[in-house]
Write a structure and sequence with these properties.
The complex is a heterodimer of chains A (582) and B (212).
Chain A lengths: L3 H14 L3 E4 H11 L4 E4 L6 H7 L7 E4 L3 H15 L3 E5 L3 H4 L2 H9 L4 E7 L15 H5 L5 E5 L5 H13 L5 E7 H5 L1 E4 L19 H13 L3 E5 L2 H4 L3 H11 L3 E3 L14 E4 L6 H7 L4 E5 L5 H4 L10 E6 L13 E4 L2 H11 L6 H23 L8 H12 L4 E4 L3 H9 L8 E2 L10 H11 L5 E6 H4 L6 H7 L3 E7 L4 H10 L14 H7 L3 E5 L2 H13 L4 E6 L23
Parallel strand pairs in A: 2-3, 2-4, 4-5, 5-7, 6-7, 9-10, 9-12, 10-11, 12-13, 13-14, 15-16, 15-17, 17-18, 18-20, 19-20
Antiparallel strand pairs in A: 1-8
Helix pairs in contact in A: 2-3, 2-8, 4-6, 4-19, 10-15, 12-15, 13-16, 17-18, 17-24
Chain B lengths: L2 H6 L10 E11 L4 H10 L7 E6 L5 E11 H12 L4 E8 L3 E12 H6 L1 H9 L3 E5 L3 E8 L1 H11 L4 E6 L3 E4 L5 H11 L21
The chains are: A alpha/beta (582), B alpha+beta (212).
Chain lengths: 582, 212
């Protein structure tokens, strides 16, 4: 027979298993993050987000919070985390300046389709619109640079809005989402229902319906093609369709070239990987774009850095464009066949319909151009004969040491183009760079985030002397939390890419590109980070090995040639086939 | 839902290069800030909106926007896709004037004395199908619905008779051959009823709330 005591115990047990929760908005937010599988948050506290930080104090065992030194660092770290791990990156910031400091990262994540959920604090709801202390209209400021945003003024909304935010951030074409939560909502105590993940929103169709007739038309074009050519972008990686993509190119035998955002989706050494597209891409892929009869664009968006002059771009070719975002098809380059859908679904359907083929003669043309590029550009860059060290030879050494297994995070500029051109990747999600926005200052914080995303991999941040000086404060984050990031500064004492343009297009009028730097080694050491500097080739290999084998974080500064240029180059406003080797 | 059909089917009829008037019809959730999100799509490309009407549709929680712009087919098609990409937007159509039935409402405030004294005015109004909305001693307000030329013509005609004030609404339009998005809307609604909009209920409680 049940005693009263037993009944009481049973009731209590029941209350524990049903997942309703009584607590503050802040607590329910953190519970929701845990439900969404979040483990790591990058953030910076402040007045308007204090209740969330107060609640976070009790969640230290479940949620790791990395205190960055600037909110821009926080969001770039979240981006690096997302890009390396494939999960949603999360960052916290307070209202006003905290939130506005996120804008650059949001814009970067938006254009590079990086899934992020950013939580910002906001002033009390009754103060909204009064120009209260640290109040800014975060929703309106961030509208153009978010996939979705929402202001919460009542704690009851938090679980549902958070669930929506994660669903929107990671589904379809991923992107950044921002939730702005007023301080009263963070403090408000409520009885919350069980957290339910979101998998459907009435007005939101993340994946367009796959239409078989377009896949059939695409297959017909591909099967009839003599010189088919594949351009692939990050869509392959975001759709986790690397295996499907590999199966497609291997069956069809079509040479494939990548945008910098697609770099690493297939191994660098793959025989059908013919190199990089675009302004500083490889010679063959650019020239042959204007010779191919069918171009199959997969998960890429024909960015102007890839296409050069549009009216002279691939006019001879039929275009097949596979993309999950219908707005991308026909946006820049008119497609003859647009295949809407997630390439994880569409590629296997297409692979089934394409003939098994080899395009040996066509592939040989890429090799011919490649040989010209090797002779005129690549060999002098990777094996320079002069005394000056080149960025390319640094990359060659890294490849030799890491064998293509490192995650390489780059900043923006000449070093970025060199790194993307020459870094060898065996694995997907190994190349992390700011592609669409070209954000200088991205490299260091993104590398910190990437290290948290894939803690077992070697993460090397390759950064120019200019870009490093945009977010050097994040050395403090490394100091405090010990992310074992290898920081490689390629120092040419110039804002190199701008200088290159000034040399080529502005008559060598070097207007404000001559940048001086602090003693980077001393700077790193002041943050208790091991560091060294190399200015002679004889010491390069050793120094790189020391850096990579070092247990913790390490900064290595390499002095490279002052006026080395990145070639080949499609000058702006020129056709891709007018690519210059010199 | 198949966006492609609706976005592509008018291609042959439309003047592909030349600019002409297009009416964009947007079905969207009633959500704070969405108007801004949509407006940004135009302002980002420096495209002027000539007329914009937004109002609740026949389904609770879903609003219908009518946006009029003068642009080329290609630009409008891209705009429509960018709008449809927004999370809260259910569906976007765009149509030329031949493909829609549209109306604008205009209100005219004229002196009652003038109307009373001058029979021609009365005839004029009848001729334009105007109806009196308000009749006061000092003035009378007439309403006319129609295309821009029609409402404009009445403005010109009333000028000599003390037109005190004039206002015109944005365009509202119905697509001639849309096979009824209404049915689709009802399906959506049955599957997942619209959520209640939460506005800032704390805004007027400022003094009662202690803050730091």
């Amino acid at each position: 027979m049940e005693t009263a005591q037993d009944t009481l115990q049973q009731t209590e047990a029941k209350a524990e298993t049903s997942k309703t929760f009584k607590g503050t908005g802040s607590q329910v937010l953190l519970n929701g993050l845990i439900e969404e599988g979040v483990t790591t948050i990058f953030g910076y506290p402040g007045g308007a987000i204090m209740p969330i930080y107060d609640a976070l104090y009790d969640y230290a065992d479940k949620l790791e919070h990395i205190l960055v030194r600037h909110e821009q660092g926080g969001i770039h770290a979240a981006q690096g985390f997302a890009r390396a791990s494939g999960k949603v990156g999360v960052c916290f910031a307070t209202s006003g300046p905290g939130a506005t400091n996120l804008v650059t990262g949001l814009a970067d994540a938006q254009i590079d389709s990086t899934p992020l959920v950013c939580i910002t604090g906001q002033v009390f709801a009754h103060l909204l619109g009064t120009d209260a202390f640290q109040e800014t209209d975060v929703i309106n400021i961030t509208t153009p640079v978010t996939k979705w945003n929402y202001q919460v003024t009542d704690a009851k909304e938090i679980p549902e809005v958070l669930a929506k935010a994660f669903y929107i951030a990671k589904s379809g074409r991923p992107g950044p989402v921002l939730i702005d939560i007023t301080k009263n909502a963070q403090l408000q105590v409520e009885e919350f229902p069980e957290y339910v993940k979101c998998n459907h929103i009435r007005s939101y169709r993340p994946k367009p319906k796959v239409r078989v007739e377009f896949i059939e038309q695409a297959a017909q074009l591909i099967n009839a093609a003599q010189k088919p050519f594949i351009l692939f972008g990050q869509g392959v990686i975001l759709g986790q369709a690397e295996a499907e993509f590999k199966a497609f190119i291997e069956k069809s035998g079509i040479p494939a070239a990548w945008t910098i955002m697609g770099d690493g989706a297939i191994p660098t050494d793959h025989p059908l990987n013919v190199g990089m597209l675009g302004m500083h891409g490889n010679y063959g892929p650019n020239v042959l774009t204007n010779e191919a009869d069918v171009i199959i664009a997969i998960g890429m968006r024909f960015d102007d850095r890839v296409t050069g002059r549009l009216d002279k771009y691939a006019k001879q070719a039929k275009i097949v464009h596979l993309d999950i975002d219908p707005a991308e098809i026909d946006k820049n380059v008119k497609a003859d066949v647009g295949v809407w859908g997630d390439c994880k679904e569409t590629l296997p359907l297409l692979t089934d319909l394409v003939n098994e083929k080899k395009h040996d003669d066509w592939l040989a043309k890429f090799k011919d151009y490649n040989q010209q590029e090797i002779d005129q550009v690549i060999t002098p860059e990777l094996y320079p004969e002069g005394d000056e060290m080149t960025m390319g030879e640094v990359l060659r050494n890294i490849n030799e040491i890491c064998g293509g297994d490192a995650v390489i995070v780059t900043d923006v500029g000449q070093h970025q183009m060199v790194a993307c051109r020459y870094a060898k990747f065996n694995n997907t999600r190994s190349n992390i760079t700011s592609g669409g926005l070209g954000t200088m200052g991205f490299g260091l914080p993104a590398a910190i985030g990437a290290k948290y995303g894939v803690p077992n991999k070697t993460v090397i941040a390759i950064i120019g002397d200019g870009g490093f000086q945009m977010t050097p404060q994040e050395l403090g984050t490394i100091m405090q939390f010990g992310a074992a990031v290898k920081i490689l500064i390629l120092n040419n004492r110039f804002l190199g890419m701008v200088r290159q343009w000034q040399q080529l297009f502005h008559d060598k009028r070097y207007s404000f590109v001559n940048i001086t730097s602090p003693d980077f080694v001393a700077l790193a050491k002041s943050y208790y980070i091991e560091a060294s500097k190399v200015d002679e080739r004889a010491n390069l290999r050793n120094a790189l090995e020391t850096m990579i084998n070092h247990e913790g974080s390490y900064l290595l500064e390499v002095m490279v040639g002052r006026e080395n240029n990145v070639f080949p180059m499609v000058p702006q406003g020129m056709s891709v086939s007018e690519i210059r080797l010199k | 839902m198949n966006t492609e059909n609706t976005l592509e089917h008018k291609k042959d009829k439309a003047d592909i290069d030349g600019k002409q008037e297009y009416t964009i019809t947007v079905y969207a959730e009633n959500r704070i800030g969405l108007l801004n999100r949509i407006a940004i799509i135009f302002s980002k490309r420096k495209i002027n909106i000539e007329s914009l009407n937004t109002s609740p549709s026949e389904i609770d929680g879903i609003h219908r926007f009518n946006i009029v712009i003068t642009e080329s087919y290609d630009v409008v098609r891209k705009l429509a896709r960018q709008i449809e990409k927004q999370v809260e937007v259910l569906k976007v159509y765009f149509n030329t004037n031949e493909e829609i039935i549209w109306q604008e409402l205009a209100l005219y405030k004229v002196s009652t004395d003038e109307i009373a004294e001058k029979v021609t005015v009365e005839r004029l109004l009848r001729q334009y199908g105007a109806s009196a909305v308000v009749i006061r001693k000092d003035y009378t307000v007439f309403a006319v619905t129609g295309h821009r030329e029609e409402t404009d013509a009445l403005v010109k005609a009333l000028e000599p008779f003390e037109l005190i004030e004039f206002v015109r609404s944005a365009r509202i339009a119905i697509i001639k051959d849309s096979a009824g998005f209404h049915e689709k809307l009802k399906e959506f609604e049955a599957f997942e009823p619209g959520e209640e909009l939460i506005e800032n209920e704390f805004l007027d409680k400022g003094e009662k709330i202690f803050t730091m």
